[in-house]
What we know:
Oligomer: single chain
Radius of gyration: 25 Å
Number of helices: 4
Distance between the termini: 84 Å
CATH class of the largest domain: Alpha Beta
Largest sheet: 11 strands, parallel
CATH superfamily of the largest domain: Ribonuclease Inhibitor
Structural class: mainly beta
Amino acid sequence: MYALLITCSLPSPDLLYGKVANEKYALLRCIVYLMYLTWELKKYNLPGALPPQLVKLPHLQVVDFAYNYLSGTIPREWASMQLTSITLLVNRLSGEIPKELGNITTLTYLSLEANQISGIIPPDLGKLINLQTLMLSSNRFTGNLPVSFSGLINLTDFRINDNNFSGTIPIFIQNWKKLERLEMHATGLEGPIPSNIYLLNNLVELTLRSCNISGEIPAYLWTMKSLELLKATMTYRIVYVLTTTAKNGRFFINKLGIIVTVSACTDSNCLHVNSGGKDITINENKTTLSYEGDGQIEGGAAKYFVNDQSFWGFSSTGDFMDDNDYQNTRYTVSLQSSTIPELYQTARISPISLTYFHYCLQNGNYTVNLHFAEIQYTNDHTYNSLGRRVFDIYVQERLVSKDFNIEDEVGSAEKPLVKQVLNVNVTNNMLEIRFYFAGKGTTRIPDRGVYGPIISAICPSLYFLI
């Protein structure tokens, strides 16, 4: 017996723009007896809605509409098909998951990541006993994870990041003995970590960031032999010393502290940094300002830079995941455009935490100007415009903006924004500004690994001495 794979491509411009008419399926009806058929319309920026007419292809097994501009809901008509894979990530789909999808027991792969789907997860999905990959990240799901998920014993990859679930991390995760990747950051779920998670002997990657977990890091996490990557942001007290038994893994526990030793310096009262760019001089309010660039400073998973001439520096932690670059070195981005000022055409980015500090600063009350522009997303009707960047801003260890979103603040991408932080007290000659990714927002638009804090420039200035 032979399997035949046909990948359907777009035959005409009207399909490119989502105007799918019934006659377009006439040709496909002629091949309904094929043993294997794949419908792949990926990265065409298709508008319109998902076609329920696919049900007319009873032998269709794989549907891939990833990276388009589709809206509307998931057709419940698809539930009568014998699909093995549904990929709808990065679109504008809304509404709830049809409970009827639980009838597609042939499904092994379901990706709904990076849409606007809301509501509770239907318990009927627990009937998908052959499911191996389930990706629901970056949506608007609420409620508890269904208890019926305990029966998904064939799962190898489970991701529910960036949602609004409630309740605790479910104990039934321990049933997923084949699980290799578990991502649950910024889900809305809370701890504790299920005590029997150590039974997951095949687990390679574990992400439990921003899960409101406190206490002690369970010692057994460090002894899981297959675990190569643990990402956690918790108010944990570390009571277990990491030894050479974990030499093959990468473990990130985000607890940033900066210590600067200074022998002698001259106090200053202002700073201008062009983040991710070069030294530039600009005219601002009839004043000429010189910005020092840091674009020549290479990045790294744990980068620490000090400019001992101007008494400032930055610290960056983390490695961009899922971008096919194990040790990332691209921590600056740029966009050449005639529509935005030069200061905003470059930026420094970070996958987890980016901290700028200025020491030898005169004590006093400061106004801190933070310059932003979203230059990795677009202002058009393509999937490149669907990204959502969210991070937190701390000044002097005080949270001044939670879930900060540049586009929400200014209305669009590629548009400058100056955020003023007033009444910043400097009492120990040190100013610290930290941008922190708490797990919210998309991570795969326009490409995998695009997320985290972004900053174009910083400019603290003295308001009055104290």
